[in-house]
Structures are given as structure tokens and as C-alpha cells.
TrEMBL record:
Protein species of origin: Thiovibrio frasassiensis
Alphabetic keyword roster: Membrane, Transmembrane, Transmembrane helix
TM region positions: 6-29, 50-74, 94-113
Protein name in UniProt: Uncharacterized protein
Amino acid sequence: MKLVMLTIAGVTSTAAFMSLCVYIFLAVRGKSVTLYSTSHTSLLSWRQKVFLALAALAFLACMYKGAEAMLWWMPSTWGGVDEDGEYQTLRASMASLFAILGGLAFIQFIDAATHNKFFLRLASERAREFERILKASINTWELPMLSKEYKEKLSTIESEAYGPNGIRSRIVDLRPEGGRAQMYRELIFHVEQLESKNKATGNPVGQLA
């Protein structure tokens, strides 16, 4: 029985460590649907929830052991007996408090930073494309090419986001690919507005509304 418990603990510990490593990689990469989906729990599958829970567990364990190592100078005689009658050192108590309060706060910070990174990337992409539309409004012959390009990108994004059937849902719309799809719909709308305005006025020079 003891061997079984040790095996389970070892597997869980290893899985938590690997989950934390993967989490760090995904956070640095900044393109993970799983990390972004934490803003809406309904977007997370049970596998993603297990992955995030293991990563959080490993992170808190690292915070605890790190704090305990930094407080190495505290003698074991500093401590007291808890409610269960077990002796707890001051070093362990302070490390636990640091891991719980500091660790959870830092996890929230990392989570928010991950979401902000996506929004900044999306805003940067939108700004670049609007600059292209602005230039195309002067050279109106570029508008049809731009419209075709955006429609092709939108088709690719929607295929990846909604699948071959193209069935939209609130859950997918809240994900990063859903946000990019919405952005390209807006870009196509603006380009088509310019094309319509040019055709109506007969003016080769369009203006961005």
C-alpha cells in the first residue's frame, strides 16, 4: 500500500512539474488558447483544468521550497505546537504563508499578463491593417486586392476556429481565434465601405470613414 501511495505521489509530482514547464513555455509564447481561456471557465475542458491545477500546484510548491530555503538561518527551535498538537517551525509557517498569499497573487498577475499580451498583439495587428487600408484608400486599385486577402485570411481563421461546418458559438467567439475572426470581419467591412463609396462618387481617391 505504501508503495502504491509513493508511486501515485511520484507520478503526480512529476506531472505537476512537467505541467509547470509547459505552462511557462506557453506563457512566453503567448499564443495558447488554454492560457487565454482562463478568463472564462466555461471555455476550459476538464483536461485543461487538470493541467492548470497541476501547474499551479507545482508553482506553489516551488514558492514554498524557495521561501523555506531563503529562511534557512531560522533555527528549528523557533516554532510552536499547532491545533493538531504537531510542532510547526516558524520557518515552515512563514514559507507556507508566503506560498499561499504571494503565490496566488503572482499566479493572478501572470494570468492577467497572458491575456493582455494577446490583446496587445491583436491591437498591433489591427493597427497595421488599418494603416494598410488608409494607404489603399489613396491608391484605390489596391482595395480589391486587400479585400480578397482579408477574406482569405478570415476563411482560414474561421475554418480553424469553427471547424469545417463553420458553426459559430459563444464559446469559440470568446477565444483568441474568435477575436481575430471578428477583427477581420471589421476590416472587410471598412474596405467594402470604401469600395462602395468610390463607386458611388466615381472618385478614384477614397477616404477612410
